[in-house]
């Protein structure tokens, strides 16, 4: 998100919980704001010649929070201070 103003996280099936957790961590730490959430199902063939199976899909669009740059600068400064103390 340092290079772009927004990022899109997406996942299928069992990975959805992981993507939601990542989005919540970014939001709760004040780094991101939720812009859009889209859910759908996609047909995927799990085996060659097998019939299609429907999988849940989620797409989460996050934007930089107003405090993003300030928080990243503070984190970078803290990392430098920790390096100097080592």
TrEMBL record:
Domain of life: Eukaryota
Protein name, UniProt field: Alba domain-containing protein
């Amino acid at each position: 998100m340092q290079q772009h103003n927004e990022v899109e996280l997406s996942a299928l099936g069992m990975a959805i919980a992981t993507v939601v957790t990542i989005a919540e961590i970014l939001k709760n730490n004040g780094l991101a704001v939720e812009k859009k959430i889209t859910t759908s199902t996609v047909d995927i063939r799990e085996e060659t010649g097998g019939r299609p199976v429907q999988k849940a899909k989620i797409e989460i669009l996050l934007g930089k929070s107003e405090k993003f740059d300030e928080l990243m600068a503070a984190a970078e400064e803290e990392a430098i201070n920790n390096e100097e103390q080592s």
